[in-house]
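Ticket #4471: structure output looks truncated?

Reporter: J.K.
Steps to reproduce: submitted the chain below (382 residues) through the standard prediction queue, then opened the result file.
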Amino acid sequence: MSRIAYFDLKSGISGDMLLASLIDLGGDAKLLDQVIKELKLNKVHVEIEDKEGCVRGKNVKVRFEDQPHRKLSEISKMIEESDLDEDVKELSLKTFEMIGEVESEIHREDVDDLEFHEVGMVDSIIDIVGSVALFCDLEIEEAYSSSVTFGSGYTRCEHGKLPVPVPATEKLLRGWEVRFSQKKGELVTPTGAALLKILTEQVKPPDMVLEKVGVGFGDREMEEPNVLRIFLGKKSNIEEEVYTVRFYVDDMTPEVLEFALERIREHAVDAYTVPAAGKKGRQGREVTVILKKKRVEEVIKTIMEETSTLGLRIEEGRRVVSLREFETVKTPWGEAKVKIAPEWKKISPEYESCKKIAEENDVPLQKVYEEVIELCKKRKRY
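Returned output as attached by the reporter:
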């Protein structure tokens, strides 16, 4: 079952709030010590405390001495040369690159020579890399966010007094749904905005079986709680938003079209073709691709590069996805993987796993399928 998360942003988001929320969810706080060690950050430690207002949660503070401002190139090198998990390194680098591009545009400096101020400070580095490490540790496969609430007034930074939201935050969240409130202060920081875009998507979240809520406190004194809440759970039998892309081709060989479909499926939920008659009686194939919203641009690019079509149609829709479990069953010939939908009592042996057993043991594939299904029925009493 996919583990999913929902970010409730009524009080905005910052790096320290996200760190605290993920720890309150059950993320391993020791990972922050590992991040400090791997990035070779001396005279730095993290303090975590329980905090209680109208809700209970965590508060995180990064304590440090004698830390310089760092350039994007320096931070990237620190991450790349570390022994952190590859997923953590990749997402952390993407976050810094996203901030770097925005800051470069604002200050009209080359991104490699850009010296970060607030984001180049050690606490922001730990906020970003630590949050990514905790997010990966919790094995969250999909994350969604509410609309983003901005504060009002002004905030002070290295560049002086700036209006809220500051230019970097405003540019990072272009294209996202935002709300403006009269709450004084900077509710959304550039670090929080970048992490939000890297880790989540702003679409309607699927229904979930709720497991836990993590609460992270910020340091601002406000009439309302300055907290970020993250809801963690597993997908239930749900409907989710998808896009359907269709196009027609009549001048591609089957081999080249199949190669294109393989490339398209790397970014899509599914892709298939059906025979179709086009203009002037030409026989061809209509291609249907089902994908999630965040993959639309990638899929369109792949279609245009790998197929001969000059146009396509895009439709919004919903799809129903059954809750499923992935298991391994031991057959007389070896272990086979299987998908099970408990609510509907459906069993679907994994083709590649069963095919390997059939080939290695010279057993009919259908017999392997039947054996896997029978073993599942006995185990689950279907």
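Triage note (M.O.): checked the attachment and the full token line is present. The radius of gyration is 25 Å.
Status: closed, working as intended.
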